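[job 0412] stage=complex_fold ligand=zinc ion status=START
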Amino acid sequence: MVKIGIEAHIQLLNCSSKVFCSCPTTGDENPNTRTCPTCLGLPGAKPVLNKKAFEQAVQTAIALDCKIPKETFFSRKNYFFPDLPKSYQITQYEIPIGTNGKLENIKIKRVHLEEDPGALIHKGSITLIDYNRSGIPLIEIVTEPDFKSPNEVRLFLRKLITILEYLDIYERKSEAAMKADANISATGEKVEIKNITGLKEIERALDYEAARQEKEPAQQQETRGWDSEKGITFLQRTKEEESDYGYIFDGDLTKIEISQSLIKKIKLEIPELSLDKVERFKKAYKLEKEDAETLAADKLLAELFEEVAKEIDPILAAHWLRRDLMKVLHYNKKELKEVKIDAQHIKEILSLLQQNKINDATAKELLIKLIESPFSPKEHIEKENLAMITSESEIENMCREVIKNNKGVVDSYKSGKQEAMNFLVGQVMRLSKGKANPKETQKILKKLI
Ligand SMILES: [Zn+2]
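[job 0412] stage=complex_fold status=DONE, emitting structure tokens
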């Protein structure tokens, strides 16, 4: 049986400055422009803990149901690598910010805060180093080996991302901001795959590795890399133990007390998270589980839904938002936050639809237009004269005309040919330039024939 555990690394890019200095986390992308003696690791430079990053890590640990210690501290993980000029990474080892948590059925072993090292850029035979990344706050979330399939890992990471988005510490768009190491054992010893970027790649790498281990079980613990172009993992080294790194207490950073009042304050700042939202949507709006889950999986979409549902039938609103709006966005390769569609637009479209003033096709066209630029759907329908014909006598007149001009088709309908009716409805639709209601039209035609 396959057993998989995950170490997810999340960059806190919404935190404006780095974890141990005041350099910005985002901005100028030219290499080595966002650096100072501290994040360059120069001798004598003193790190100072960024309170905001620390609180975001505590918030993550609380949201994942972790136990929070009364105090914690940072340690130096010693290793030599060019992306880390001071020869150690400041991280947490002995007492992490959170332990023994869970997310649904998956146990969370630990949550801790650390600094990202610099980035190595390989160009032909030379290697360049960019220290802009050095010191960006990273949260590491380690699970127990509770996953039984690569797909389960992907679903878990998606839920984790949703939680982090609700906490406002992660943005889905920056896929590179989610890296993971995964350990997997199929039949033999445990194998660790290092540094996989993005959910899809994590699942692919694990699928490959599970199949590989079925064929040749690992004889000893080893660390492998992932080559996403070739779609294979490759041996890097046989596994070192965590204790091989020689962790020592970082005396530059004092111990940090995590008081009950701080925990209380942070708890109050945690918004309703996606899992709770699903339950509330099911109860309050009578949504199906799947609709509730899809809406709650995207914070912005969930907020949009609640705003629309104040005036529109929630079930209708849920269907249009999760099916039609998402489809249009997806087709245009856009995210909800990138377009200027707001609740007012959706309310206008759906209330026109509810009042039978427009049909589904027109509503969809309006959505497509709104992706490009915002306008009032209600005014647009009036101005362009796109509203459906609601006057029954007007439709009846058209039906009479169609019947008069298509005697042969009417006769074949009378002799039992059902398809003939579709043709007649089609003719009325054409005459009305698509503004007649097909159901109404059929009813009237049947009455007249
Ligand atoms: Zn700096």
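Residues 314-331 form the longest helix (18 residues).
[job 0412] exit 0
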